[in-house]
TrEMBL record, chains A, B, C, D:
The keyword Cytoplasm does not apply. Pfam families: GFO_IDH_MocA, GFO_IDH_MocA_C3. Residues 4-130 form the Gfo/Idh/MocA-like oxidoreductase N-terminal domain. This is Gfo/Idh/MocA family oxidoreductase. Residues 139-272 form the GFO/IDH/MocA-like oxidoreductase domain. Keywords: Oxidoreductase. It comes from the Bacteria.
Length: 371, 371, 371, 371
């Protein structure tokens, strides 16, 4: 059992999730490498010190480069806004540190490609934080589709819709600004998760046509009303390389949808349905059953399903959001240990970013775009 | 209580549904006009006579023109394949008979327009059989949206997907042939219902981009394998005149979906969700409630909701498929009685057919189409 | 196709349901006997005449004995409060008329037994109106259990709970009065349906212990507050003759439950779940499936299930409350036609009433009671 | 931030859950005391050493007394079969160590009372591991009921049913043996959780009548078929001190139910429903809403609900089984820190055990039992 000294940049939403996961992943999965919460960096030294004390990190810094360059750090987790990822990743490459970077990888595909090439060039383990695809249910979905159990995939209806910015009184932030965030709004914030699911579960996207909208054109800013620069919602039609077609919705203003990451995948022999709001169930339809016994079956996750047993011996006892990060981290640790690339790599993140960029272009030009 | 002598053309799936509805609508809604099952026509005299005996029609004929021209018939219900609608409707206009015609109204928008103009010119009551929009739940949805209760509609995700042709061993029929059916497949067979719902609940569609596919390229025909001529499935992006955007899926090969007519309508103050497979419930989200008490509310239909009380005094006791036709018929009877046009009129059917036609063009040319 | 001239007593909640069913059952099931809505009786001549006009009955009377004795009536449907059933049934026996009587058959088991013996003695077709057990889903449940598909039944958890008297401001009525209703309240009004389901699906009940309560001790009466005389809610433990055990809840004050007739039946090889609020689905669990593919399967009713096809060719299109009465009536007509007893006969109603009576005794004496 | 050196006895199902929780609770809740995984004990020294290495405990022992008496241990978690609890607890009292003990507290109420008196006499923090009641949803249920939001509770329908021993081929174990487990089977293994929920959410139980059954009378034992000594399933009727009545089911052989801990609590103004298989949702019915807007509302847990924010800022992102233990542990740490008794204390465990014992007596004597 060897320790891996982790440096974490960012102490927001995801900084905390990674901290929690780092502390329990070893016991849960009995990993070869055991992570140690070595150093945390945020925008300020005081903030970092405070979070270190509260969350149990050994050291802290207000300068992320200090963290990256510190010889006492073996691997880095980047949990800061996308605008910062490129510099941080390139610094990690220089410092020869494996990286787990939050999604979206870059602010655009060009940035992502630079990161991919740098990491691959340096031969460092690298991973993008697409955690939702890590649930036992989504892993089972992958197995079922790959095995041919539902036949060839023909139609795919997916969405990642939430309502975290539904209220127009919620302030502008890096998420709504191109300068500090990305040109895409919900399209870069939530859609990457479900685009990644499409690529993982169904395969490459060959072409798409997209439409996006800003719903609330201003939000309170630090200096009064601030114009909103990127999309609140949108949808696209997809054609997959394997011939399947489908549609994808995304939103940050979808009233009532809290974790609306859903996929319905129809095949020539059956179908699957998943809703992240009920993340411990996968619905499976088998068209070969007797007509009087056909119907979607609600399979509750349990020890018979991928990665579940490590969390609980009891079927249906359930995993939650943070457990997704634990599974992600287990894979990242394995990647660092073996030196192997572990899915989803930066390249996978780049593939997602290309889809986002194609969608932006399609929405702008109102036309189908090939990938 | 005056009798209205009905002539019905067609004794298939919908012929039976209309027969059932005709016999009970009077007692259920205590209608002013009471329909009498006067004469039924099918393709053959023997078949018609047989159905008359089994279903309780007073007379029968193997020639629909006999029925239309018969002075003992006051109004006509057309429940035959779309390819036959134009001739029948024009004959009814000549004979000055009000018509309730099954969907889709025409084989294309041009046909529909001819029918609209003929009926309107003659000042005859006319209606298209969009029954799904008749449920108490969908009527309630209409009320809720119209009242502004969920604010301005911003995103619309809808589908009408079934799996009645999922199995490639199912034979070709008028539904799969352009010559006897329509150029559109599922797009003309199931999609019209949900397009109609969009128009009813959200308003006119300004533009769309569509994609369609044939999944099973041949099916057993009378003379061996027969090439399938129209779409099995597809999807479109929609822009509504009021600024909302959305997506629509349709399919006749959607494994596991039996009556997958669903709509999710998101507004600036709340949202609605409906699934026809659970037709007695409407889900409502009110964004104005206290954050700790927010959530989709499952409203079971009851006497407090449109048209429910006539069926039952008990909340949640439930209406079914045939009850939709009863409601439709009640409105048609009212239209005949008052001479007023009753929604959805042929013109509404025409509006739907224009969307279908735009979708065909869009799919063919792979571009956005304005309506 | 022979006509059967029906006399209906009662024009309330159930009077209307029977009227609707009478008018469409012939077309739906192509019955041998076709019912004719001949004569309706209510408490007053004017009321009866009014209902006849509105609902399409040929004749009417304010005196039910006139109806029963009328030679132009071939069979009688009794849809009046339980307190009136005994006299009416005995009169029908004298007049040699087959009877379909609403539940509960008698005000107590002794009354029921008198009716059973009279009808059986006269060899007349007789049936009790347990309509909920008529849904395609509950018929399928019966088939599945009888076939051994879920093994031996071991535990049964059922309820019939509604909230039609939840509001204490709702007035007293025959339902709450012993003098005009029954000594049992919800126990005689809703519980009989689910007791009947237990007997049908699982078999005879060997012993029980029950508990009942009045929640709202007074309600508005015609002369001010009126003391409530029978139970608002209760529950019982059951032991079945076949060794299974279970519990049963009933209520007329169960806030939020509209048609809460649910059963969960667990066997040694699987389990079933049904909820009348979603009456077109039956949930089936098969314990023999591979552990990674186990889960309750939501089977939507369709033509492959009992009695569905007559209503619709489309799976999941759905039946509703009144369709249950149609199925019931189809069986009653068959019984009249063949002279055979058709389940559930008066004797079945008596078996239910014995359970109700045992529950009353058990609740009063706070002890287990054998049946 | 002070460390608390924890000793854990037991490395089975619950031993692992406590280990995981111990490692992340500090970061999640920023607790005053930070637990340190100091020493673990199991039945054998080798097993303990192995688990220590795999799970990250600093020391290990094959003799739990060594652990309890070790001055380097500040508090003890007991996660061994019930038969061992009494000795361990008494030893902890002698050693002046606060204890978190798994449920059921004792093998019978007398044992539990001894433990209560010993702990209370010594003034040590003590808690029983009723984790299910810790979910944000169940805490919210408690708040809602306590605030009077659903009025006075009138009917309570609850269950804790699973199918972990549904298969008769599963071997006998301490769970099925009186000598090493408890006289009650499922009644002592799963029922305590839901009894505890009743006491917590509704209040003291005044009387009950219970029924229990062994379904599989033998199971494979180490020396061939072994007779099963305690109940597989059962149910009871409950009367609460506040006048509410209800029923409770429990089972370890309930095919298809994986985590069937559900409660439906009906009040004079509304109702609540919860199902642990969908642990991130609470269903609330408000009878005061307009009749056309009434229905159960599915509230997804989020930062507005008890203890959720510490896990995630996102509504509906979800907590899982192990997070329940984290919340439990947070409270235990607080109890140790402040010296205060923290609910549910040993006394609460004793109250549950009294209900279990009353149920055993009731089932044996087939009569109502007062508590
Ligand atoms: N996988 C998932 O489920 C989620 C992923 N994310 C992703 O995680 C990343 C972070 O998002 P949140 O945690 O929501 O953001 P946040 O706004 O909650 O926190 C950002 C953190 O980054 C720190 N930070 C920003 N600039 C920095 C700099 N130059 N140097 C050091 N620290 C800096 C801030 O001090 C703050 O602690 C984003 O890429 C986002 O897209 C966010 C939420 C969920
Ligand atoms: N509103 C709804 O839910 C549904 C509507 N439909 C629509 O109803 C119409 C009929 O469809 P189905 O009933 O499914 O068809 P079907 O194939 O079951 O029955 C068609 C009937 O029309 C008769 N027919 C055909 N050509 C005729 C002619 N020249 N003269 C006299 N009778 C003729 C046939 O004999 C047959 O009785 C179509 O427009 C279809 O799109 C169909 C199913 C559901
Ligand atoms: N199967 C089911 O789902 C249901 C069954 N029922 C049962 O149906 C029966 C009737 O109940 P509701 O229709 O709800 O009652 P209701 O109060 O709505 O109607 C009762 C009808 O009986 C008539 N009536 C009463 N005494 C009469 C008399 N002496 N002579 C002639 N007519 C008389 C009244 O005028 C009224 O038309 C009861 O036995 C009840 O338990 C009621 C509701 C649902
Ligand atoms: N709160 C909850 O959700 C659950 C609670 N439990 C409770 O947790 C307790 C343990 O159950 P499981 O973990 O399922 O049991 P298990 O059989 O999985 O593990 C028992 C552990 O106790 C150890 N052990 C037994 N006797 C010992 C002794 N004399 N000295 C040291 N170690 C000893 C065994 O070596 C083993 O590691 C029980 O009281 C059970 O009722 C169990 C499962 C779920």
């Amino acid at each position: 059992m060897k320790e891996l000294r982790i440096g974490l940049i960012g102490a927001g939403y995801m900084g905390k999730a990674h901290t929690i996961a780092l502390q329990s992943v070893g016991a849960i999965f009995e990993t070869g490498l055991r992570p140690r919460c070595e150093m945390i960096a945020t925008s300020t030294a005081a903030g970092a010190a405070d979070h270190a004390a509260r969350w149990g990190w050994h050291r802290s810094t207000g300068d992320w480069r200090t963290l990256v360059d510190n010889p006492g750090i073996d691997a880095v987790i980047i949990a800061t806004p996308p605008r910062t990822h490129l510099d941080m990743v390139l610094a990690c490459v220089s410092a020869k540190k494996p990286v787990l970077c939050e999604k979206p990888l870059g602010c655009d595909a060009a940035e992502s490609l630079r990161m991919v090439e740098a990491m691959e060039g340096a031969g460092l383990a690298n991973m993008v934080g697409f955690n939702y695809i890590r649930t036992p249910a989504s892993q089972l979905a992958k197995q079922i589709i790959a095995s041919g159990e539902i036949g060839e995939v023909i139609q795919v209806t997916v969405e990642h819709v939430e309502d975290y910015l539904h209220d127009p009184a919620l302030p502008a932030s890096w998420r709504t600004r191109v300068s500090t965030g990305t040109a895409a709004g919900a399209l870069a914030d939530v859609a990457p998760h479900i685009i990644n699911a499409c690529l993982r579960l169904v395969g490459p996207i060959a072409s798409l046509v997209a439409d996006t909208q800003v719903i609330h054109t201003t939000r309170p800013g630090p200096h009064g009303p601030e114009a909103i620069e990127n999309d609140d919602q949108g949808q696209m039609l997809l054609r997959f390389a394997n011939g399947a077609s489908g549609s994808l919705s995304f939103s940050r203003v979808a009233a009532g949808r809290k974790m609306g990451y859903t996929y319905r995948i129809t095949g020539t022999r059956g179908a699957l349905y998943f809703d992240q709001e009920d993340q411990n169930a996968l619905w499976l339809y088998d068209a070969a059953r007797d007509p009087s016994r056909r119907g979607f079956q609600k399979i509750l996750m349990g020890p018979a399903h991928p990665d579940y047993l490590a969390f609980s011996q009891g079927v249906g006892h359930g995993t939650g959001y943070n457990d997704q990060i634990v599974i992600e981290l287990r894979d990242f640790l394995r990647g660092v240990e073996t030196g192997d690339a572990v899915w989803p790599t930066f390249r996978d993140g780049y593939e997602v970013d290309k889809v986002v960029e194609a969608a932006l272009a399609s929405a702008r030009d109102r036309r189908w775009v090939d990938l």
